[in-house]
Amino acid sequence: MALDEYRKKRDFTRSPEPKGSAPKRRAPLKKTSAPLFFCVQKHLASRLHYDLRLEWHGVLMSWAVPKGPSLDPSVKRLAMHVEDHPKEYGTFEGVIPEGYGAGIVMLWDEGTWQPEVEDVDAALGKGDLKFTLDGYKLKGSWVLVKTRREANSWLLIKHRDYWSGALDIAEFAPLSVKSGDDFPAILAADTPAIWRTNRPVAGGETGAMLQGIIEQAAQLRAAAERARKRMRRRNS
Ligand code: MN
Asked: Nearest Cα to 88, choosing from 153, 7, 34?
């Protein structure tokens, strides 16, 4: 089934990620079917990247975009095709303490998508899928084009339209569409002490970024604890 690879990579006794239910068979979609879901998850793992997921045949087709989507049509963003994820993954936000993808996941954008082609499977097979996004942050026409450089390597490109432009969307709109939180707040809501040892990434730019997030999360948690104590004193 489509989720075999997704499940093989993860230990669901140690990860809060949804195991998901696989669709029984690849039912052909009717023209009249419900709108298709899409999301982008900002994922701080060994590297910061953005996971674009498009619902198709009951699962989420997924591409990891290291630099994130760009609204500038002249910018082609590398998008590595990765394993299908369960539909339930589309609302996931939280902390993966260890193992595959260990780090912090933020629901950065969500909405619906629409193919701009008649036959999506044929377009995927050809390596050229044109589609429209209707999210909070990403809108309008896009294309995913397979490159010949490497297996699984695609490019994500914005088409020129009302929603394209020079705005750096990742910088302009960095927060979660689910919680409104940034990475430190997502970690603070979980277990900020989780990576006192055995950080998912230690060195380099990403390591430094995670270090800062851990410190901010610990401060947020300490401030919340102080507020709780004040409330308790007041109420006793
Ligand atoms: Mn990822």
From this structure: 7
Interior angle at CA 213, CA 207 and CA 219, nearest 5? 140
What's the pLDDT band for 201 if we cut at 50, 70, 90?
Answer: confident
For CA atoms 89, 93, 98, 103, give the dihedral sign: positive
For residues 125 and 189, give the distance between their C-alpha atoms in angstroms, rounded to a whole number.
Answer: 42
Structure tokens at 61: 């087709």
Q: Is the pLDDT of residue 13 over 70?
A: yes
The rounded Å distance from CA 230 to ligand 1 centre is 39
Q: Which residue has the tokens 């409330």?
A: 231
Structure pTM? 0.90
Tell me the per-residue pLDDT of 70-97, one tens digit each, with 9 for 90 and over: 999 999 999 999 999 999 999 999 999 9
CA of 148 to the centre of ligand 1 (A): 23
Q: How far is the CA of 228 from the centre of ligand 1 (A)?
A: 35
- What residues are neighbours of ligand 1 (ion), with CB under 5 Å? 43, 51
Helices (H) and strands (E) in the chain, counts: 5, 9
Cα of 64 vs centre of ligand 1, distance in Å, is: 6
Task: Report how far residue 219's alpha carbon sits from residue 192's, in angstroms, rounded to the nearest whole number.
Answer: 9
Say how many Å lie between the CA of residue 104 and the centre of ligand 1: 9
